[in-house]
Fold this protein.
Amino acid sequence: MFRHTALRYAVLVLLASAALFQAFTAEYFGLEILTEILILAMLVLALDIVAGFGGMVSLCHGALMGMGAYAYAILSTTAGIAPPVAMAGAVALTGAIAWAIGAICSRSHGIYFIMATLAFGQMAYSYVFEAPIFGGDDGLGGISRLDLSFVGIDLNDSRSFALFCLASLGAIYGASVLILRSGLGRSLTGVMHNEQRMRALGLTVWRVKADVFGLSGMIAGLAGVLAAQHIMYISPGLLSWTVSGEALVVVILGGLGTLVGPLVGAAAFVVLKHELSAVTTYWHLVVGALLIAVVMSRANGIFGWIEARWGARIDRRLTDATRKPEAKEVLGDA
Amino acid sequence: MAHDLGFWTLQALNALQLSMLLFLLSIGLTVIFGLMHFVNLAHGSLYALGAYFAASLAAVGGYWMGFFLAPVAVAGVGILLYSGLIKRMRKSGPMAQVLVTFGLIFVLLDLTRIVWGDLALAIDVPAILSGRLTFLGVEYPTYRLFIIALGLAIFAALAFVLGRTQIGAMIRAGVDNDAMAACLGINVERLFFIVFCVGCALAGLSGAVAAPLLSVTPDMGLQILIPTLIVIVIGGLGSLKGAIAGSLIYGFVQTFGAVLAPQLASVLIYALLAAVLVIKPVGLFPAKG
């Protein structure tokens, strides 16, 4: 089960204050990067729930995010539905599709699961690419942001929008923790460790997988809605499998199955990408080499490495010295 | 939709040519997976490397030099990858392998961009293969017929080696149960190495063969990767029969889909893949039952 250690709390506080500091001090470009990080963080959170706590390594989360973005764009522009309703509709639709994908793929394991999710993601990608209603490879523009003027917030201002994304991410993080601590989340981890045993205990394994995949899809869909509102323009590239691959890279760089790690990974990845692409056009080379190094080192990403190295020591220092340190959590095997 | 017989023959030949190209790529990938349980996403990048080597060599010594030496060069790259990375990743789970080879795609992509630049390269078809032949009542480019013939020849050769020779028996034993094969005195590790090199060489060969048809660009490896993976997952991992069946299914569904239902063509193949995975999660002809 997911547990917050003192170290995890500390990193969360650190990340939140860094984001708040950035949101209130940065100029336009800094705010754009912050928003990009926050949206990516939401996507990788969704991926970490299924991959880190359910062993379902999905290569369709980029496509799910794209579906959320397209659903919002179509509902709010073509269908002319009010943005809040369109947002809810897009999230619900993405969740439903994800639930179906999870249900269909629930029998596959390992590489077959990866391939099956890849197939569904690519299916969505090609459909969006070809169907005229989605604007083909021209994409869709003119997407409006949520109107919060009744409480005096103008989301067209990039500072307000960054803060809005930060608040959404905070809420989603809380929801993710609740999901993982619920009976459903515990069943999911049980299924990851031993599917046979959970079945013997009377659990309907495919339902557990599908339900969590659906919830994760809703989070990915929300990330897509925010991405569409952020850029105000969407293109089929959003659904491409390389987006899902990149999301997986971020989860791994951060630390699979730690929930906090992927947030660290998202921040590190976006900053690294921007810094490197300013220096060289070959930033993929560096990211690729880094990824290989992280996976080969057998550490569980940046955060996982810190946790394994100094986790117990930092926790002891952070918690009351009189209390016994908590039993170290067994991390999901990457 | 009133097309004559010649039109359908032409489409069938197109489908067959696409199938054979995919077969050359997927057979290496599928046997590597079947034997080593290793998922090499960078296989497509090796194909791109093959095309680049062929383009460079063809500029020096003509098409045939590229055709024969590019596979050797790619096999050399394969040896480097094997000793540097893959040997150490053998015992890892599928996810770690997917990620390492995904990283490798990034690295190889940018390396090709650094060495050969971003511009597309082109190779000329050799004079002997450049014309058109009348085949089954239709005019068809000789070079494409050459690809079909080459694919069939390689299929026959591999079917013979895997089915009729001792090393083929050893490979099949290794795919079926590597621990037992090792107990019987087969050096499974060396077998892996040989199969990996041959798989890389075939990827290089398909790159060299595809180069005159498509333009040689850095992302050609990324583009071919998904079709190749679809082929091996539909066909079932690890078997020659699966690779050829998957390639034919992909080639024909893709080509005839584009003719009969252009709107649905690209979705069709993914829907087929999803259907196969739901009904037979391990593919149509897996090496292991």
In short: The radius of gyration of chain A is 20 Å.
